[in-house]
């Protein structure tokens, strides 16, 4: 099937999209509309810039990506061989992942040519060097997360229970709410006897947003596999602290989540000029939400700084 080039991106909803929209609508525009088609040869310079900036990551995200890749590889090995890799070996793999991101980030010009293939750390793109305290924190988190991964309730299930059937590992899926496409990606879905268990790896601190994410997964599981809610177990594995948290499934909360999702989609669509093709209104219709927290870590600081300068010169 040939790749179809569209003037505007496909409409869909995800929890990450909702979070960006709530954080800053201008960032939302950059991320989903301004950057669209920025990989094409005939893209405008603004599209190219926003597309590049969209790819920027940071040390915390790189660590999270590395841990998820490690978990995915180890679980697939268990699925095939009923064994897990050596803890020291996978620690070195994640450390290599971090070091490679640092090396990629040393050559900005090379990254600009292939921003999707190489990594660029926010700390280096918008600064001269990695903050020493953050580097020390990442090293500590790396060791804690991998140790707690092996000690987690989910991995212990794999090692000690014979009646485990893995259904999905890091698969991107969609389902629909009121005919609107919803994207979800489960870290792990498996059956233990008659119980369906969703496990989600977290490398940061606890947050209520994580609970809502897992409830969304429950809706997906019910939709795709027709699993009754009482046969589900939704588990958060906080690898930094080593704590496992099971999310209770309340149908009233699930119904409220659906209402919240529809409301979120309606708010996004109010900023569309043509909803049928997902054409946005002009960028000026997407207000900024300046704050030290939002702006300091934003990938699109470069764009906003240019816009501010243009306004001053006008």
Automatic annotation (TrEMBL):
Key words, A-Z: ATP-binding, DNA damage, DNA repair, DNA-binding, Helicase, Hydrolase, Nucleotide-binding
Stated name of the protein: PD-(D/E)XK nuclease family protein
Originating organism: Chengkuizengella axinellae
Domain PD-(D/E)XK endonuclease-like: residue ranges: 12-305
Database matches in Pfam families: PDDEXK_1
Superkingdom classification of source: Bacteria
């Amino acid at each position: 099937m040939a790749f179809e080039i569209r003037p505007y991106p496909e409409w869909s909803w995800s929890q990450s999209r909702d979070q960006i929209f709530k954080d800053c609508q201008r960032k939302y525009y950059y991320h989903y509309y301004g950057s669209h088609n920025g990989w094409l040869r005939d893209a405008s310079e603004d599209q190219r810039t926003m597309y590049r900036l969209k790819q920027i990551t940071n040390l915390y995200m790189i660590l999270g990506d590395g841990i998820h890749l490690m978990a995915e590889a180890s679980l697939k090995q268990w699925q095939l061989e009923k064994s897990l890799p050596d803890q020291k070996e996978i620690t070195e793999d994640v450390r290599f992942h971090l070091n490679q991101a640092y090396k990629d980030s040393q050559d900005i010009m090379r990254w600009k040519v292939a921003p999707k293939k190489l990594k660029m750390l926010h700390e280096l793109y918008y600064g001269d060097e990695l903050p020493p305290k953050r580097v020390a924190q990442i090293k500590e988190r790396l060791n804690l997360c991998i140790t707690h991964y092996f000690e987690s309730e989910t991995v212990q299930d794999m090692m000690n229970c014979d009646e485990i059937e893995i259904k999905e590992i890091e698969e991107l899926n969609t389902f629909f709410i009121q005919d609107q496409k919803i994207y979800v990606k489960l870290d792990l879905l498996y059956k233990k006897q008659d119980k369906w268990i969703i496990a989600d790896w977290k490398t940061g601190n606890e947050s209520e947003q994580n609970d809502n994410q897992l409830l969304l997964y429950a809706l997906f599981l019910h939709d795709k596999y027709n699993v009754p809610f009482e046969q589900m177990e939704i588990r958060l594995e906080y690898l930094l602290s080593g704590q496992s948290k099971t999310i209770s499934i309340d149908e009233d909360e699930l119904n409220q989540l659906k209402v919240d999702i529809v409301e979120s989609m309606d708010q996004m669509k109010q900023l569309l000029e043509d909803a049928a093709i997902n054409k946005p209104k002009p960028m000026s219709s997407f207000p900024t939400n300046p704050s030290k927290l939002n702006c300091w870590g934003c990938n699109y600081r470069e764009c906003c700084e240019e816009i501010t300068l243009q306004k001053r010169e006008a």
